[in-house]
Amino acid sequence: MRWNNLSEQTADPSGPARTAALFGTDVVSRIIDTPEFAGVTFHEVRARSIVNRVPGASRMPFEWTVNPYRGCTHACVYCFARRTHSYLDLDTGLGFDSQIVVKVNAPDLLRRELSGRRWRGDHIAMGTNVDCYQRAEGRYRLMPGIIEALREHANPFSILTKGTLILRDLDLLRAAAEVTDVGISMSVGFLDRELWRTVEPGTPSPERRLDTVRTLTEHGIGCGVLMAPVIPFLGDHPDQLRATVRAIAAAGASSVTPLVLHLRPGAREWFMTWLTEHHPHLVPRYERLYAGGAYAPKWYQRRITRQVHDLATEYGIGPSRPATHRRIPPQRTPAAPEVPTQLTLL
Hints:
With 346 residues, the protein is an alpha/beta fold. It contains 11 helices and 14 strands.
């Protein structure tokens, strides 16, 4: 593995993005002897930057991200972030699922960067590369410190996750939402349990994720659902889309946003290997559908989007949007009753 040659754009909004080494060279690798982490190695590093600028060519609707982990035990076979493991000379298949880089200094580093004179308090997105509430978070507990730092600076942020562990931090999220905009989205692309077990083997079930949406909503944290990915020929039948949108609506989601599977280099090879093993008859259809690159054709994306939007309207979710931001007004103590005063003419 190589650690010291990596660089990433750092948070300097005053001009062109600077590059800096991502990690120090002091790396501690740990194998945790518990069934939950069987076969997983954690590489504990001290990051040199934590607020990172999204490349200008990205399709993402945000400019800054915080990612406390690299690699993900959710092991989603389609995960576009797989390619980033190759930058460390790590395998983008099983290595991505089992070699997890942990930025152990993320909360302290974030506090320092948010306090910098040049930081303007822009929106920060989390969970957009790998899931910040993957199983590793149960051990390392980086997110409470990260949320507290964002709250202390009233810095707006959003979280995208498949992890039910987010409920552990419910009180912290409520406290942050009292002072800044907080957007929470849960990723649920389908309900099919057999498909879930093979394509997202390390994640909580779709039902548990929707239960998490319900709990967040009941506690005043609006939660949207990113219906992603919609997997062609396996999760895109109209009956499947209807069942998924209906369940999302029943969970009280504030919005639903469909996203068709995309297959970037690194993820494409791993997904096609999975497809060959589990659904070999679909391989030619995928080769045709994705012949033009990482994304399905526009006509297919538009068809799925239109179907989901129509279903969302039918089930009363309302217009789809990328994320829902929620600010909870602080509780106020009732004002003391006013004492009547005698009016005078002079």
